[in-house]
Amino acid sequence: PPAALPALAAAAQAPAPDEGVAARARGLNAFWDGFAAVPVSPLDEAAAPDAGQGLESAGEGPRARPRGALPWLQVRGAEAAAALERAAALARSTRSGRLALDQAARVLSAQGRALPVRVLDLGRNYGEYDFIDGDMRLHRALFAPGRETDLAGTLIHELTHLVQHTLGLPSNALELEVEAHLADLRFMEELGVRPPPRTFARQAHEALARSPEAFTDLLQAAVGGPFLGGGAAFAELTERLQEELEDLSVKSGPRARALEQVVARDLKLLRSSAGRAAYRAFSDRVMESLRRRSAEARAAR
Q1: pTM of the entire structure?
Q2: What is the DSSP letter of 77?
Q3: Hey, which bits of 233-275 come out as E strands?
């Protein structure tokens, strides 16, 4: 993983089986979107992205923009740009994909920037949106022929995060992951495909059909984070963020300082009436969508 990400492998570890889904949240260092195996149904080597396939490192070659559907992305190499174009075309064949792409385009237009895309080996992670550095990282194995559905779903997920981080919400709220996973699962439903076996997406798909609680428990075990929709009070959430801020204050390095600023911003947000109202409205909307989608999934079994 990129050196800029703090202790990725350690922080993204799933809880041991005896910890269960109530394990302590991993905190802000787990803001990326790939997941290690969780006790429900661990991933195996066959399910992991194949780091031996795909493109070379994003550090090589000039940066180019896809010419058609994604002119607001910047990626190195014509091959990568063409793969993103194919994934975007597949995404745009669905309602959920069109929504994610159009919302991201509006955000980036308002910000007056393009979104850098780095094609890297990310281990078991398919993608990451780094809201501090403002770039998106995609596993290079997803750019191999035949992986267009995986690439399109990951693109939808990460672009959902891009939009979310403009809404004045806690940066690591679990509801952000709930919404992003519902978006890429809906995309696959609209295509008429199921997530591959032994992947986190399949675990999420199956948990959604069990209950909203099973779905959020799975995400909580994988990434943690503040979760208003789980019944926590604002006082509890601000106390946890204050603890994270204190932990970061004794760490050194530019990444720790950047994370410290993010947590301080989130604390200020949750201590304001406007910030609490915005988070409450977002959480309520996402949880209502989750309940509706879970009922649909149960009915379809």
Answers
A1: 0.80
A2: S
A3: none
Residue of 120, 155, 153, 124 whose CA lies nearest to 34: 124
Determine the Cα–Cα distance for residues 87 and 79; give it in Å rounded to an integer. 12
Residues 6+ away with beta carbon under 8 Å from 246: none
Q: Are strands 115-120 and 73-76 parallel, antiparallel or unpaired?
A: parallel
Q: pLDDT tens digits, the chain, 301 residues: what are they?
A: 322 222 222 222 222 223 332 232 232 223 334 333 333 322 323 333 443 333 333 344 455 555 556 789 999 989 999 999 999 999 999 999 999 999 999 999 999 999 999 999 988 889 999 999 999 999 999 999 999 999 999 999 999 999 999 999 999 999 999 999 999 999 999 999 988 888 888 999 999 999 999 999 999 999 888 999 999 999 999 999 999 999 999 999 999 999 999 999 999 999 999 999 999 999 999 999 999 999 999 999 8
Residue 8's alpha-carbon distances to 123, 189, 199, 275, 298, in angstroms, are 10, 31, 19, 29, 35
Measuring CA to CA, which residue among 183, 175, 185, 181 is closest to residue 98? 183
- Residue 18 — φ and ψ, nearest 5°? -75, -10
Q: Report whether 106 contacts 153 (CB < 8 A).
A: no
User: What size, in residues, is the chain?
Assistant: 301
- Tell me the C-alpha to C-alpha distance, in Å, between residue 80 and each of 46, 91, 135, 157: 24, 16, 16, 18
Select from 178, 185, 176, 174 the least CA-distant residue to 152.
185
CA distance 285 to 279: 10
Q: Would the CA dihedral through 95, 97, 99, 102 be positive or negative?
A: negative
CA distance 200 to 204: 6
Measured in degrees and rounded to the nearest 5, phi and psi for residue 222 equal: -80, -45
